Amino acid sequence: MPVERRPLERVRGTQDHQTRQATSMDAMRTKCETAFGLHGFRRVDVPVLEPAELHLRKSGLEIISKLYSFHDLGGRRICLRPELTASVVRAAIAQPSPRLPDKMFATGPVFRYERPSRGRFRQFMQTGVEVLGAEGVLADAEIIALAATTLDTIGITKYTVTIGNVGILGELLTHLGLTGRRRALLLESLEDARRHGIEAVRTRFASLDPDLIQPDESTQIRDGAVTAELSSTSQDALARLVAQTSAGDLGRRTLEDVTTRLAARMHADTARAAVDRALAFIDELGAVRGDPDTALDAARALLEAHGLDPKPLDQLSETITLLDAFGVRRERVQIDLGLSRGLQYYTGMVFEVDHEALGAEKQLCGGGRYDDLYRVLGGRQSVTAIGFAFGLERLVLAKEAETIDGTRDNVPDAVFVVPSTPGDAVIAARAATALRHIGVTAALDTSGRAARGAVAFASREGFAYLAMVSRDDPPETLRLRLLTPDGVPADDTISVPDGPIPITSSLEWLRANPASSSESTGLHRSTNRAETGTEARS
RNA sequence: GUGGCCGUAGCUCAAUGGCAGAGCACUGGAUUGUGGCUCCAGCGGUUGGGGGUUCAAAUCCCCUCGGUCACCCCA
User: What domains does chain A contain, in order, with CATH numbers?
Assistant: First the structure.
């Protein structure tokens, strides 16, 4: 029978983490979580699988279009979570009674169907924090500062914090009476406007909602007559108007019929005017970016020109002052009022942290204020909230980019245990077990190779110690030998118990002479077999 | 999602349309104080996969899978 031997490939956009990478990810996670814990956050774990609806309710088109979703065997619509926030909030709502503020962090894999590239995967790790009961600028500032100081703790320095506020545009849209889908589309187009120009947005908008942008010839005919009366839109007024302007020319339609249609047109006209005004504002708002002082001045002028409340800008200013108090230097901070972010649940302050060495996928962190989400997901009260998430893979990339080549990791002591001959299996097993029993890492050579080859291997792989065991040695003894990367240590260089000694004393000796305290030993050879692939690639 | 580049031994990479190779790794041996260096020998390939053009394809064309860079978007 021929058997299919073709190797199976990974699912596109997923990764295998070999030892070094898995360890880096783990260490990165721990550093982040430790920093979160230091700020009084508690850990929560939430499922990878969620009802698709959780993410359909208010995540925004961008995320939804990339959602992994399917029907399970029970016919339920399930998705792999694309982010953590919605799950954490859902879990919080499910709890008996919230005591605010409730500060939580969560870590785990998330899934988005995107085209993979460096620093961007279909399955990746996020670690993020959420604060429920997060009122005002102090909450804003602390959460941004937490992101920044976590990076400081990790030792990542080349980052920039960019702060925006989607609430400003939101307020204008409310003023203009724009709601629902139009509101969502306009909020989404904030960032588009800057990148592609306001005309591109207008064009896109027209294709999605033709009534609003494109002038309609049939309405224009009557525009002149109607606009004068726009302020009073009562049916009576309309009826009078229609009767005056088109005396006896109504054809088969009733007067009521005509006025109703006209009212609808006028509504479309006011909406169109509102959209035009919103687009103009978006165009200008997107241009407000740069260092805090300059950007805030420009923003104040803009809001004043549009008759909007400057309060969000005062808050932004306060936030930046507070950031300084939290230890985030002003030079790191940029203002960008064109920052919109893909998740639609954001309602106010939004921010991102970028790293300069990461190219296209430079964003380390993103977050902001989402004061509506708690209710949207079924919470019975209104709860202000704020949060952010790091991409762990990107933190690792950023850290590596800043790490000078040749820096060595701290590694534990490790003993490579080699049976002298295949007949020494029993004694080798006993020795390895004895070492592990006192917490010493013992890797047993099970390759079956000749002993001399095993010794060369242990040396090359960077093991700290070699234990060659043989039945011929006296019982309860271990020949322990210190290995160094540079060759055989001369006897006078390092005092090693060379030769048969009692296991008990060799263990004591090991404890007293941890190899990791010596700069010249340890498991840090770059030729480590498991790592050659990833090393060469990066 | 758009455009470009790439895919050859376990790894890093060579090879005018003309015998698929090197270094490292791996296995064995020599030397060494059972030790990395050095030396000798060996193992190792459906050239990502499929189809086409050709006397002849790693090489040219098409499809596909994967990677990567710039956009886009985001963590």
Answer: 187-285 (no CATH), 414-537 (3.40.50.800)
